[in-house]
Amino acid sequence: MVVLCCAAALVLPGCTGQGGSPAPSGSADTPQRAATELATGLTKKDVTRVEFAGAAASDVNDRLTALLAGLGPVTPTVSVGGVDVQTDTANATLKYTWTFPGVSQQWNYEATATLVDEAGRWKTRWEPTLLQPDLAAGTRLTARRLEPERAEVLGQDGVALVQRRVVVRYGIDKASVSGDAQLTSARKLAKLMGVDAGSYAAKVKAAGAQAFVEAITLRADDPKRPVNKTVFAIRGALPVEGEQMLAPTRDFARPILGTVGEASKEIVDASDGAVVAGDQVGLSGLQRRYDAQLRGIPGVQVRVLTTSGASPSPSASSPSASPQAARTIFEARAVPGKPLKLTLNLRQQEIAEEILALTKPASALVAIRPSTGEVLAAANGPGTGGQSAATVGQYPPGSTFKVATSLALLRAGLTPSSKVTCPATVTVDGRRFKNYSDYPRTALGTINLRTAVAQSCNTAFIGQRGKLSGDDLAQAAASLGVGTDYDVGFPSFFGSVPQDKSATGQAAALIGQGKVQVSPLAMASVVASVAAGKTVLPRLVSDKEVSPKAQPLTSAEARQLREMMGAVVAEGSGRFLGSLQPPSVIAKTGTAEYGTADPPKTHAWMIAARGDMAVAVFVGDGDSGSKTAGPLLQKYLKAVG
Q1: Which long-range CB contacts under 8 A does 308-312 form with residues at least 24 apart?
Q2: Strands 419-422 and 445-448, bridge-based pairing
């Protein structure tokens, strides 16, 4: 009797349920099953397996496809919120959640589907409103991505280094030229713009019938830009003005800042939906590393379009369907990117690049403010081939490394006035070391450490190798910012001072040869540390600051190093910088042998500090630090004042 009562209760009208809903007497089917089946199909955007009342599932699926075509490939998540049964009909509440690629805000809403009982089988009555309540006959949904405004890259004092600048895109408008004439025009435009004709013609051929196929983009103020009349003379060719995030010039800090352009397939695939085809993204350098911050977050606008025609159909999404009215039903606004703040000084970077512009070998100049560690300039000459030798180059430092060796000797008990021996040559384990070719004879014999630094006596430093052991040299270098890795927010190489077990390797390391490697950035940190009286680590990204890991450089040690580096300017290889005083200048020159040529080729180095300015200059092939790198450093210090 209890079972019969429960069964009878299932047929009472007006009952509702969240799970297995009531069904008519004699039927095992439930409206909950039909609602769940519908939600599953809508989630897949495929309702061919859903049972509809009075309509074929394939026809309904065509209508669904037409209604949703304007939303692109996104799919909703649809769940059943509840089913309200009224005898032979039921209303199912459907909960929709749409997630658009890269958009942080979801589109959530509820819709109602009517279910009917046909001969004991619950089926869905097709209506556009079950998809979205604002839909009706003759309407469809469409969405457009709202692009965020890419943020600027700012330099010192908030000066814009990368900002929107006017550009002109040159290309072929395929809609205005047809047939073989498209390829003829493509080749003519490619020749005019200096791009590869074959590849550009193939690009034009592969593009859609209505496409504008870009050949090249030039700055509006580019002196090489052709006059519009010449472009218009080519059938279908157009100059299209627009804006693009650019630095002041094409080469301004380019290896460091990087570039912005259309996202590659690899970037799109790796973005997990945050980037879609056609998006402008950072392709290299800091633009790439901080792309998410600079790019911002896209938005989306969903609208109901009223189209010509009585009811939605597959053709309603075609280009020929002419929208008559549009109403926005959901909008997630784009969030602009956040500026990236750097320490680069616009004027000093331009000066540095201008100074290096005529240097054919690989070259670099790095300027640091000792009091703060701010990188004011990090310039690369044309010989670097677009690479940032200034920050990630790896080169033997030559005699500039004697600053680190001097610190190690100070810690071993020597002072600037300590006596050392400077012979013309010294032999270590069969290898003969000598001083540079024009070393002054008057500085041979017994001299003090101060003079050894000023005149850069190789043999004197090698002769003191017995005073050092283990990692003494590496520890001293680390106190000057060399040889310890730090994440400072940009690609950087702080150098490497590995221990060499061979006697000749240890001797070579004392004069910045052998296995010792540094970057210009690292050597700028060395002289900045000496000038500041503390370990200085470079800071290029304003809000990225790190703390030294090494034994701190003391003020007393720095004072002694400044005394010896001051002697380089007063009486040594840096005398030509004396005209820049006051304020006083400290410096060290360096020439590093490399390669297997006989005689070997040499890198030219010079580091110096004046007031609150520390500079390192590197030239890949040069006669010596004083003759090749020195004049470039002198020009920079004089220009920046």
Answers
A1: 308/138, 309/138, 310/137, 310/138, 311/63, 311/137, 311/138, 312/63, 312/66, 312/67, 312/128, 312/135, 312/137, 312/138, 312/139, 312/140
A2: antiparallel
253-277 tens-digit pLDDT: 999 999 998 899 999 999 888 888 8
Size (the chain), residues = 641
State the fold for domain 164-243. Answer: Penicillin-binding protein 2a (Domain 2) (3.90.1310)
Dump pLDDT digits (tens) for 5-14: 333 333 333 3
pLDDT at site 598: 84
Q: How confident is the model at residue 324 (pLDDT cuts 50, 70, 90)?
A: low
Within the chain, how many helices (H) and strands (E) appear?
Answer: 20, 24
Nearest to 285 by CA among 148, 392, 164: 392
- Are the C-beta atoms of 528 and 612 separated by less than 8 Å? no
Cis omega (within 30 of 0) for bond into 583: yes
Question: For the chain, which residues make up each domain, given as ranges?
Answer: 2-145, 164-243, 346-399+478-502+509-640
Long-range CB pairs of 505-509, under 8 A, 24+ apart, other chains included: 506/465, 507/428, 507/431, 507/433, 507/462, 507/465, 508/433, 509/473
For strands 585-594 and 445-448, give the pairing: unpaired
Q: What is the CATH number of domain 2-145?
A: 3.10.450.50
Assign 356 to helix, strand or coil.
Answer: helix
CATH 3.40.710.10 for domain 346-399+478-502+509-640: yes
